[in-house]
Structures are given as structure tokens and as C-alpha cells.
Amino acid sequence: MSIAFISDIHLSAQRPATTQLFEEFLAENERLLERLYILGDLFDYWVGDDSVGLLGHDAVEAALRNTVTAGTQVFFMHGNRDFLVGEEFARRTGCQLLSDPAVVSYEHRNLLLTHGDALCTDDIEHQNSRRQMLSAKWKTAFLQQPLAERIHTAAAMRAQSKAAKRTKSRSVMDVNPHAVENLMRQHGVDTMIHGHTHQPAVHAFEIAQKPAWRYVLGDWPKRRNALYLQQGELVLKNLAGAGD
């Protein structure tokens, strides 16, 4: 039995191939994994737990439920695209909601998990938007809107975000090294795992002259991978198949 970490699947009705690959991944691993950690942006967008049918994710929820029923603990951390996933989703799927950041322990290793966007401190526009949308006031007001209006608003926000990215450099949208080190120091860990940046890699560096590692997960529509922890070793593996 092992543990797996994935992120940035970006499931959408407009990406059927990616959805199929995710469901196949769950089916292939449901009796092999002790735990599965989904570190945000499982969905390309989410406008409330009552939107699952209209967004076309009923089969995904069923696949997650099957995985949990088969014995795998599935943990879900919010990303910047699906931060409105709530308790009803957790109840339907059996997933356990995980705070961001979170420290998990396994085989005497402490691992710091985060979606990653909070570490992109050089992207001031994103951080301002993030603070607004994560506020209880904004989320309550948004979820009180009719479902059709929420979907329309989400589409407009995605289009705006996509346009804004064209004017930003990759370095601005990447994590800030000082933010990474500060968060790792705060939690007393030497290993961090995150997604969001869509730049999968393993970064080795030092904190207080001691070895440290940062594992970055890929985005499934383009670079489908998973990070496995087995017998104390972390291995980032590319998975067969391509998304949409």
C-alpha cells in the first residue's frame, strides 16, 4: 500500500478525455492506495455543491465514492478554481476536506501540503482576488445567487483570468522562494508538496543549512503525473495517457 498526491486535474465537461483518465486512475488504484491526496483544482471551476449535475460531474463523484468504499482514504484540498467545494460534496463522495496548508505524517516523515497559489506572492493581482473570494462575505453572497447566474459569473472570471495571464511573466506566476521557506520554517518541515504552477519538478535546496525538498505536481490536461510515497521514498511519476 502506498500514498499518492495529485493536483490540477481541471475536470470539465469540455475535457472528456481528462475526465476519463481520472476515472481510470481511480479504478486502477482503488485497492492499491492507502491514501490519495488531491491538492486542489480537481475541477476547472465549482460554483456550489448544488452544481454537480449541471456541470456534468456526477460520474466523477460516483468514482470517488467507489474509491473510498474500496478502502482508500481520499483527502481533498481546495484550489483557486474549486474553493467552493463544501460539506455536501464531502458527504456524497466520502472525501475528507483538508485545510490549506496541512502537515501530514507517514512513515516518520512530515510533509507540508498546499495548493500553492498562496505562495505566489509576486502576483499581486491574484493575491488580492484570492483574499476577496476566500472571505466568508463574498462566498455567502455568491452562493445565494441563482445557479445559472453563478455559472455565468464563473465563466466571466475564468475568461478574465486567462486574459490576465497573457500579460504576466512565468516568474511572477511562480511561487516566491522566500514564501516557500517561511512556510516550511513555520511548520518545521523539510518537505513541501504543491501544485498550481503547472511546472512539475523536484527542487532540492537548503533551509538553515539543512537539506529540503519541494515537489511540484503537474496539470493533467498537459502533464499528467502523480507523486507516490512508498517505503519512505517520494517518487514523481509521469502517467500514461494525455488529457484534452
Would you tell me the structural class of the helices and strands?
alpha/beta
Low-confidence stretches are: none
Mean pLDDT: 94
| Quaternary structure state of the chains depicted | single chain
How is this structure best summarized?
With 244 residues, this protein is α/β, with parallel strands linked by helices. Helix content is 36%, strand content 25%.
Summarize the structure in words.
This protein has a single domain, classed as Metallo-dependent phosphatases (Purple Acid Phosphatase, chain A, domain 2, 4-Layer Sandwich). Strand 1, helix 1 and strand 2 form a beta-alpha-beta unit. By secondary structure, it is α/β, with parallel strands linked by helices. It is globular. It has a 6-stranded mixed beta sheet with strand order 4-3-2-1-10-11, covered by helices on one side. The protein has a 5-stranded mixed beta sheet with strand order 5-6-7-9-8, covered by helices on one side. It contains 9 helices and 11 strands. 36% of the residues lie in helices and 25% in strands.
Q: What is the topological layout?
A:
Layout: E1 2-6, H1 16-29, E2 33-39, H2 52-55, H3 58-69, E3 73-77, H4 87-93, E4 96-98, E5 102-106, E6 109-114, H5 124-133, H6 136-143, H7 147-165, H8 170-173, H9 177-187, E7 191-194, E8 201-207, E9 210-216, E10 225-230, E11 233-238
Parallel strand pairs: 1-2, 2-3, 3-4, 6-7, 7-9
Antiparallel strand pairs: 1-10, 5-6, 8-9, 10-11
